[in-house]
Write a structure and sequence with these properties.
Layout lengths: L77 H13 L21 H7 L17 H18 L3 E3 L5 H18 L7 E5 L5 H8 L3 E5 L9 H7 L4 E7 L11 H10 L3 E6 L18 E4 L1 H4 L14 E3 L11 E5 L2 E5 L18 H37 L4 E2 L9 E4 L10 H10 L6 E2 L9 E3 L7 H19 L3 H6 L11 H6 L8 H9 L1
Parallel strand pairs: 2-3, 2-4, 4-5, 5-6
Antiparallel strand pairs: 1-7, 6-7, 8-9, 10-11, 11-13, 12-13
Helix pairs in contact: 2-9, 3-9, 4-5, 9-11
Length: 523
């Protein structure tokens, strides 16, 4: 398929018998999957979905600044606009339409009960500037959510303010810095981060002014305890570690790791992105963790993706509880209140202007209360069971990176593709034609050609079997030598395989009319 200068597949040539030799249709449509041009390409002068009165002539208040002749918005009738965005939405892949096996991202079903609760008056329309006396119910919900987060983690304090997991990481590291400064221990300039950590971990440490020292992994995919101990010293402020880790494995030495970090005067930050694998079964405080963020969208099923809204509460052990940021909710004889200023001066400040994302708090608490302690215990168990089932069914045709059992996600590498001419990316593109969103590819970086699969607890055995059967068939096809099939995939998508490197490095961010584009090219 040829590409035009707008960075998208060319339109159907006049009189062409097919769009690209795959659909076999004149229109480029595939049954009910309608080919859809850009909204600007549908522009027709004078067409509009609403009649507006003529704008009266007034004197310009822009001085020497001349207004443009046209705003540049396309002219379309209302049915065209509705159809355009409906068709675009049908091209989206979502958890409501199919299995979403992204590793390390926990794309699980969002119960509709949660959505119903979030839309209740008093939650959906609450305003951050309302007087505290008028939002007592909302504050009570936040207080109850904080209570259960502390109960499930065994921690002493929690802040609900952080807007996402990475924001929560920053909150935790800022608390660690505040604690060291409060003690006058200003010589600690380094944060230790395992090589298998989420990419935001070293970025957070660097953003907070620390240098980052990587900790290698052992052959079985876990933190090398001896290498960690060798790097501990008076210059180490703390450790950032994910447990279960990004390879889908529980850190067996985590208590020894915590003891070593504490003995060196540092603090233990845990990336709680994978708390969904152990919630209801293990309390992070019992492992020696000082501070940990929790992704509500991963563990407690608030919506994930689309750029937000997110929520990344942070829980603190007694060691760091005095340094939590403001605001936070308190409960006294006069009801609930927000502490906006910490009188002791230990809090490092605020994470953002207002408290947090109310809709996410409602959804998370709804999830907790509807499941109960036994339901959360089962959810984490089912997540681990599903991941191990996928690993067991695939390990004879694909290569597991580490010996099982795994936790909530299973990790494969590309050794099974060696000599076939097929790459991890080719496998992922072929999987799209089978109707599945690909798993996470090429991450974690410590594994070559990684394929990281997280089935989540909300998938049935039937859906897992269908996914596994597709992967098994693709693995066997790759080994049979059918390289051309994989290099041409995906065939059945609205857009075929594009040059992703060029798209990332030279994105076309603005559409220009063909006549203008041709004139610019001529210049």
């Amino acid at each position: 398929m040829s590409m035009n200068n707008q960075g998208r597949p060319s339109a159907i040539p006049a009189g062409a018998a097919s769009f690209d030799g795959v659909t076999g249709t004149v229109t480029g449509n595939r049954g009910l999957q309608i080919e859809e041009p850009l909204i600007f390409e549908q522009d027709s002068a004078g067409r509009t979905g609403v009649d507006l009165p003529d704008v009266p002539k007034v004197a310009s208040r822009l001085g020497a600044v001349k207004p443009r002749a046209k705003v540049g918005l396309p002219g379309l009738a209302e049915p065209q606009v509705v159809r355009h965005y409906t068709r675009l939405s049908q091209k989206n892949y979502a958890i409501d339409s199919g299995f979403y096996p992204l590793g390390s991202c926990t794309m699980k079903h969002n119960p509709r009960l949660n959505e119903k609760m979030a839309r209740l008056p008093g939650f959906s329309d609450v305003h951050p500037m309302q007087p505290v006396s008028t939002v007592q119910g909302a504050l009570e919900l936040m207080d109850q959510l904080a209570h259960w987060l502390k109960t499930l983690t065994g921690m002493a304090a929690v802040t609900l303010a952080p807007a996402a997991g990475a924001h929560g990481e920053m909150c935790g590291i800022m608390a660690i810095r505040a604690a060291h400064e409060a003690k006058g221990d200003t010589g600690r300039t380094k944060i230790l981060v395992p090589e298998s950590a989420h990419g935001t971990n070293p970025a957070t440490a660097a953003a907070c002014g620390y240098s980052v020292d990587a900790i290698p992994a052992t052959a079985d995919g876990r933190v090398d305890l001896e290498a960690l101990k060798a790097k501990l010293g008076p210059d180490v402020a703390g450790l950032m570690l994910t447990n279960p880790n990004t390879c889908g494995l529980f850190e067996r030495d985590i208590i020894a790791i915590a003891e070593a970090v504490h003995a060196a005067g540092g603090y233990f930050y845990c990336d709680g992105a994978n708390f969904n694998a152990i919630v209801g079964r293990v309390r992070p405080a019992d492992l020696g963790i000082d501070v940990m963020h929790i992704n509500l969208h991963k563990t407690f099923s608030t919506p994930h993706g689309g750029g937000g809204p997110g929520s990344g509460p942070v829980v603190f052990a007694e060691s760091l509880a005095p340094y939590i940021p403001v605001p936070y909710v308190t409960h006294g004889k006069d009801g609930f209140a927000l502490v906006e200023n910490a009188g002791d001066g230990l809090a490092f400040g605020r994470m953002k202007a207002f408290h947090g994302q109310m809709g996410m708090f409602v959804r998370a608490l709804s999830y907790m209360l509807s499941h109960g302690a036994d339901g959360l215990w089962q959810a984490s168990g089912d997540a681990v069971l599903n991941a191990n089932y996928v690993m067991a069914r695939l390990e004879d045709v694909m290569t597991a990176s580490f010996e099982g059992p795994c936790m909530h996600e299973c990790l494969f590498d590309d050794r099974f593709l060696k000599g076939t001419g097929v790459t991890t990316l080719d496998m992922a593109k072929a999987l799209i034609d089978e109707g599945f969103h690909p798993m996470t590819m090429y991450f974690p970086l410590v594994v070559h050609g990684a394929l990281l699969i997280e089935p989540t607890e909300t998938e049935s055995k039937a859906s897992l079997d269908q996914f596994v059967d597709a992967l098994r068939a693709l693995a066997e096809r790759a080994k049979s030598g059918d390289v051309a099939y994989f290099q041409a995939a995906p065939r059945l998508t609205p857009r075929r395989r594009l040059d992703e490197t060029a798209a990332a490095r030279k994105p076309v961010l603005r559409w220009t009319p063909p006549v203008v584009a041709e004139a610019l090219a001529a210049e």
